[in-house]
């Protein structure tokens, strides 16, 4: 899957030996080394994220994806996609795991699409990827905040911190995309057919950035408070201490009258004190077993 070319006549992707600067190509980083005309351009773009020369434009944009983490569940992951556009060709360079997503979700039907339309489709898809990931993260944050009300451990708190960190990375990636598009717009002639496409993508990027940034700011204050709780480990400690206090309160309250200067039954019995101690420890043990079965001591 190193280099693939879209055959419009057949309407399907076919394997290609190298990039020919005519048509739509999907390439992995390994395939670039077999394309001398692309290697120098992409090397220059990897350092500056943007390279413009005459009618050629090369962009390196961040793309947001979702992945499953063994510890924190669904989290965000950042990849980079490099686009090399000419009036007759569009080369898309990405990791091999990203290629199926490009073919299935981003590009779609390509039979009657011009190169500038394909460029706009990929630009907008890279921008919308951040919005899609942000929506999933917000849904998870809402579920975790509801679960936190009855949770006895710190797992939910740690997941909330990680998800809010991912939202911050989405905001940074969107701002980076906006800077790249703005510089590309400045470097493109106004009469170029690509100019209105870049302008539309930049306006859409600003809209998406405002929305994701608003979501991030909304959860930032709460997450900062959660950070302090996790660092002090106060969440679990206080809940466990409260449970033990509740366990000991009832038996201790029951034996308190025997410490008062009041005539009580069996107060002169030699084994009364041992019986009361056995009662305290027995009831506490029963309550502790019940609390353990219901997860009150789970860290």
TrEMBL record:
Transmembrane segment boundaries: 240-259, 271-291
Taxonomic lineage: Bacteria, Pseudomonadati, Pseudomonadota, Acidithiobacillia, Acidithiobacillales
InterPro entries hit by this protein: MgTranspt_CorA/ZnTranspt_ZntB (IPR002523)
Protein known as: Cobalt/magnesium transport protein CorA
Keywords assigned by UniProt, alphabetized: Membrane, Transmembrane, Transmembrane helix
Domain of life, source organism: Bacteria
Pfam annotation, one family: CorA
Organism: Acidithiobacillus ferridurans
One MF annotation (Gene Ontology) recorded for this entry: metal ion transmembrane transporter activity
GO-annotated cellular components: membrane
Signal peptide: none
């Amino acid at each position: 899957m190193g280099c693939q070319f879209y055959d419009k006549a057949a309407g399907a992707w076919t394997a290609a030996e190298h990039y020919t600067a005519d048509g739509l190509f999907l390439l992995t980083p390994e395939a670039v080394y077999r394309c001398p005309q692309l290697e120098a351009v992409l090397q220059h773009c990897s350092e500056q994220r943007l390279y413009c020369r005459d009618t050629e434009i090369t962009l390196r944009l961040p793309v947001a994806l979702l992945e499953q983490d063994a510890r924190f569940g669904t989290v965000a992951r950042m990849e980079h996609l490099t686009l090399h556009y000419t009036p007759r060709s569009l080369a898309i360079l990405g990791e091999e795991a990203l290629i199926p997503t490009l073919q299935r979700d981003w590009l779609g039907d390509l039979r009657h699409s011009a190169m500038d339309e394909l460029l706009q489709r990929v630009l907008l898809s890279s921008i919308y990827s951040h919005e899609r990931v942000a929506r999933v993260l917000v849904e998870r944050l809402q579920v975790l905040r509801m679960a936190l009300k009855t949770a006895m451990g710190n797992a939910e708190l740690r997941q909330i911190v990680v998800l809010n960190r991912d939202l911050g990375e989405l905001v940074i990636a969107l701002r980076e995309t906006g800077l790249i598009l703005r510089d590309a717009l400045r470097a493109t002639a106004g009469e170029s057919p690509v100019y209105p496409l870049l302008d539309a993508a930049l306006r859409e990027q600003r809209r998406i950035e405002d929305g994701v940034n608003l979501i991030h700011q909304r959860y930032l204050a709460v997450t900062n408070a959660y950070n302090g709780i996790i660092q002090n480990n106060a969440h679990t400690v206080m809940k466990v201490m409260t449970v033990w206090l509740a366990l000991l309160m009832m038996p201790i309250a029951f034996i308190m009258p025997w410490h008062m200067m009041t005539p009580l039954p069996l107060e002169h019995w030699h084994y009364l004190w041992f019986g009361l101690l056995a009662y305290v420890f027995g009831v506490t043990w029963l309550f502790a077993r019940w609390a353990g079965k219901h997860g009150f001591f789970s860290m």
